[in-house]
Amino acid sequence: MEKNVYVYKCNKYDESLVELAYQEILIKPGLLDFVQEGMKVGIKVNLVGNFNPDKAATTHPILVKVLCKLLIERGAIVTIGDSPGGLFTEGILKSAYKGAGLTICEEVGAKLNYDVSTKVIKVDKHVVKNLDVSNWLLEQDALINFSKLKSHGMMALSASVKNMFGIVPGVLKPEYHYRYPNHDDFANMLIDLNEVFECKLNLVDAVIGMEGNGPTQGTPRLIGCILASSAPYPLDVVCARLIDLNIDNVYTITESIKRGKTTSFDELILNESIDDLIINDYKNILPGKSMEFSEKFKGPIGKIINPIIAKVLTVKPKVKKKECIGCKKCENICPVNAITMKDKKPIINRDKCIRCFCCQEFCPVGAMKAHKNLIVKVLTKSK
Questions:
Q1: pLDDT tens digit string along 302-347?
Q2: Are residues 215 and 306 in the same domain?
Q3: What is the domain-level CATH number for residue 325?
Q4: Measured between alpha carbons, how far is 17 from 225 in angstroms, rounded to an integer?
Q5: How far apart are CA 8 and CA 272, in angstroms?
Q6: Which residues, in sequence order, are CB contacts of 222 under 8 Å at separation 6+?
Q7: What is the pTM of this model?
Q8: Residue ranges in the chain whose pLDDT is less than 70
Q9: Cβ distance 361 to 215 under 8 Å?
Q10: Is 35 domain-assigned?
Q11: What's the half-sphere exposure (Cβ side, CA atoms, 13 Å) at 233?
């Protein structure tokens, strides 16, 4: 079990500052020692869509560019890629790379992946047996997972473990939500993906994160650091600590602990304290365990009361009709067909909804929210 996490405090995306950061958290600890002359190294960024870097929805291009430079200096052949949600085409990728500013990485000799071919591979993991993957990943000798710290409607936290969902081609992602509608199973699927593609290096862009209606329509928030580790699991624990998010509310962390992948924050080894970085008023989404009461009451009365309590306290997607533009993206992306349009506005069938929050994640104007009623807000002291 990896317990080492390296932190560098950095409050802006300045190339010279990032170079100093990488010297401390990558070069000195030897995290780049795996790189060999001629090695094909793929950087799996967070490229959730065509978002300007200032939106804080994607891995910042300056961080990626400086990393590419270091890798290429060591003789690596570097390819950057991801699979945004929705259609997975060369045109979509071109637009997303340009919008996210990642084209600057070509200046130092890195390549941007435009291969949209896919392959099904057989695996034998905790929940995943057959896995749809983007072919470009299979062509690499080593992978680097470079995520962005964000709030997330379904998983509460989008960081290192969640970022590997991008190995699944965008158009097939709703199918995985359908296959694994249970939050624990979905978290275990994400852990399985990290096991199949065991990245040599994992980094988190936590200079500016996203709070609130994440992972695409939230608000940028200064956090002030870059994180690195040889494993993704301890990074998520530290990320949760940074934004004052109880790990019991993060499915990927609780399931990782159950599987012996990581441990509590107090047992991790950090190169320096993060106490001065912790944000106590970070606007988190808590869809998770503290709001699930399926086993709160036992016996016959529990069968009656538990579903009622769960229905009242469960965080769920809800549309703000005044903000909705009637584009139908939510209807088209829903893996269980729980959304229909009426008078150009989405109607959610709550009996069908599996709370995957795909509709919320891919709403282009942020009209679909992760809705918490007043009781949930009081219980979680969230805003």
A1: 666 656 555 555 678 899 999 999 999 999 988 889 999 999 999 9
A2: no
A3: 3.30.70.20
A4: 11
A5: 8
A6: 11, 207, 208
A7: 0.86
A8: 287-299, 301-314, 372-383
A9: yes
A10: yes
A11: 28
